[in-house]
Design brief:
It is a single chain. By secondary structure, the protein is an all-alpha fold. It has one domain. It is 70% helix and 0% strand. The longest helix has 29 residues, at 219-247.
Length: 325
């Protein structure tokens, strides 16, 4: 076996490992929620462990820090839109929504990016493949939604809305990053967004949920936050940037398609159902995302000549913050 073949095989193994780390996040969020962790407390706890990993890596690598106050301001905004808000919405939503369903719904992020991006980015345009992809993707959401139409009420409905809201928030973060977070080495936005998000979520948790002395620390809850922080918010970054270096943003973003697969598979361990609607809905959403990012059908419908799609797959926003639920 040649060195090139070994390198290629290693990258594919890292790619699958990355998909598992991010795809398993929804599973471990559910475990943390069921173990009694309040949403903001869970978010702050996982970010603490993620921060420890990232600050260690950045210190060892001696990455240069941002010099402009404006850059720190943009990273602060990103920490809210791209971490605090979606993390909270996903965690809160999973109090009443299955982890597998959360993973599937979070795969809609690129669809919302395609809706939002043309409003703020002059080089993003409405093209035929994007319109068709949006239609197919949101048809998948409706297929998922259909079995619950007769029983959606109270927390169940709010859980659905929270998960959709998290996807919208990630999409906004992607667009904001493409417009404002540029010229930084990738690990720096990752570190400072997690740092700001940790500070914000910790303060909110202490003020609103008051977890100290009131939230029991169990083996399940501790394992969940350590997994989410060290792997999902820490080492997953390292894998992402390692793959990104050799594969580029477009190919690396294909990890998006693994997240619902791992989410559904791990949900079985929690006795969550694998229904025909979920399988069909997942396939439609993934198909819609694939169409949105397709090279074909880029004939513009409005605006100037079409450009490459934003590429905000259910994997992290490209060039901003590789982070997911």
């Amino acid at each position: 076996m040649t060195d090139a073949h070994r390198s290629s095989r290693l990258l594919w193994l890292l790619f699958i490992a990355l998909g598992f780390m991010w795809g398993s996040s929804y599973f471990f969020i559910k475990i943390g929620v069921e173990a009694g962790l309040p949403p903001l407390t869970l978010v702050a706890s996982r970010l603490f462990f993620g921060f420890l990993v990232l600050v260690t890596v950045v210190a060892i690598a001696r990455e240069p820090l941002p010099r402009s106050p404006r850059q720190y301001g943009h990273l602060l905004v990103m920490s809210v839109v791209n971490i605090v808000l979606p993390f909270f919405l996903i965690t809160w939503g999973e109090q009443s929504i299955d982890s597998a369903l959360a993973a599937i719904l979070n795969a809609t992020v690129p669809l919302f990016v395609i809706v939002i991006a043309p409003l703020f980015l002059p080089d993003e345009h409405v093209t035929l493949n994007r319109v068709v992809g949006l239609a197919v993707g949101f048809a998948g959401v409706l297929v998922l939604f259909a079995p619950d139409l007769g029983v959606l009420e109270g927390n169940n409905l709010l859980g659905w809305l929270a998960l959709i809201g998290s996807s919208v928030s990630y999409a906004l973060g992607n667009v904001y990053a493409k417009r404002n977070v540029t010229g930084l080495r990738p690990m720096i936005p990752a570190l400072f967004q997690v740092t700001f998000a940790l500070a914000i979520s910790a303060v909110l948790a202490l003020v609103i949920e008051r977890p100290i002395g009131r939230v029991p620390v169990t083996r399940d809850s501790l394992f969940a936050v350590v997994w989410l922080g060290v792997l999902g918010s820490g080492f997953a970054y390292l894998l992402y940037f390692r793959i990104l270096r050799d594969w580029g943003a477009t190919r690396t973003s294909l990890v998006a398609y693994l997240l619902p697969v791992f989410g559904i598979a791990l949900g079985v361990l929690l006795n969550e159902p694998v229904t025909p609607n979920r399988i069909l809905g997942t396939l439609l959403i993934i198909g819609g995302v694939a169409l949105v990012n397709s090279r074909y059908g880029k004939r513009r419908l409005f605006g100037a000549a079409a450009t490459t799609p934003t590429g905000a797959s259910a994997a992290p926003p490209t060039g901003a913050r590789p982070e997911r639920g």
